[in-house]
Amino acid sequence: MNGFLGTYSVSIDDKGRLNVPAKFKGLLERDSPQLVMCVMDGFLIVFPQREWAANEEKLHHLNAFDKSDRNRLREFYARATECEMKSGKILIPVAQREAAGLKKEVTLVGMSKTFELWAPDRLEKTSK
Amino acid sequence: MNGFLGTYSVSIDDKGRLNVPAKFKGLLERDSPQLVMCVMDGFLIVFPQREWAANEEKLHHLNAFDKSDRNRLREFYARATECEMKSGKILIPVAQREAAGLKKEVTLVGMSKTFELWAPDRLEKTSK
DNA sequence: TAGGATTGTGTCAGAAAGTGTCATAAAGTG
DNA sequence: CACTTTATGACACTTTCTGACACAATCCTA
């Protein structure tokens, strides 16, 4: 596989760990299991470390001493958490789980370089 | 053969694998057995990898951080799954089978660069 | 700082999904 | 009609997914 693709319905175990589908697992193992998870507007985006870094790169031109630039930077960083795939699972911290309204069932949507985690009902509303 | 052409009625085995007709097999073996299967409105489209990539190309101008662009990207990627022809068969994952209402019999329609998979009754309704 | 609650980790067994291979049936060809 | 190719169904096997359990680390409060 050479990009995250497709929609998967996966479960979260009692401790909040997501079972990564085998197709994504391969990609992550190869590329590195280091991830950044980012709270978006009602859902979560997961970036492989490398991809996160590439996005960060784009913000380098901002000036940390400029007030509005600084706000944009803060917005970007504040939403993010580092995490990792371990034993084929990704632990989603409590705060993120709540922000995205994730319960037992999660819908995982590949977006090529990244993938998204959705509460099934929210995704359905969005796609209408 | 130099494009997918014609209509075939083929069977799906107990594990959901489609037997690829010999005429398509040749094309796929030459061009690469790597495929992308895409859920459409009641049926499935199968793209050879290369052909899929060409379509993907057209979305490169979209900005993944813009909400409405992101929705369009999601709509595109969420429908897709990578798959592969193995031993002359293509496994159609459960979710896709259900989305297209595929049972034992499948009608396969060549569309030159791609081909479609239909539940026979649905195709019939559509062509009326 | 001891104890308890919460959060995070490793592992495994059973169920479900996916894979390879082959014998036979059906269809196509000269 | 005899022969070759193609399609189908069946079987054994492997991989993946899920839920559960036991345990470790952390944090909070008495």
Structure characterization notes:
The structure is a homodimer. The first copy, chain A, is α+β, with helices and mostly antiparallel strands and about 130 residues long. The first copy, chain A, has a single domain, classed as 3-Layer(aba) Sandwich (Chemotaxis protein chec), CATH 3.40.1550.20. The first copy, chain A, has 5 helices and 8 strands, in the order E-E-H-E-E-H-H-E-E-H-E-E-H. The first copy, chain A, has an 8-stranded antiparallel sheet with strand order 1-7-8-4-3-5-6-2. Chains A and B meet through strand 1 and strand 7 of A and helix 3 and strand 5 of B. Chain A binds a DNA duplex (30 and 30 nucleotides) through loops.
Order of helices and strands of chain A: EEHEEHHEEHEEH
The number of helical segments of chain A is 5
| Beta-strand residue fraction of chain A | 25-35%
- Round the mean pLDDT of chain A to the nearest integer and report it: 91
Reported for the largest beta sheet of chain A, the result is:
8 strands, antiparallel
Summarize the SSE layout with pairings.
The structure is a homodimer of 128-residue chains.
Chain A: E1 7-11, E2 17-19, H1 22-31, E3 34-39, E4 44-48, H2 49-57, H3 67-78, E5 80-86, E6 89-91, H4 94-100, E7 105-111, E8 114-118, H5 120-126
Antiparallel strand pairs in A: 1-7, 2-6, 3-4, 3-5, 4-8, 5-6, 7-8
Chain A binds a DNA duplex (30 and 30 nucleotides) through residues 10-11, 13-17, 19, 21-22, 25, 86-89, 91, 93-94.
Short description:
By secondary structure, chain A is of the alpha+beta class. Chain A has 5 helices and 8 strands; from the N terminus they run E-E-H-E-E-H-H-E-E-H-E-E-H.
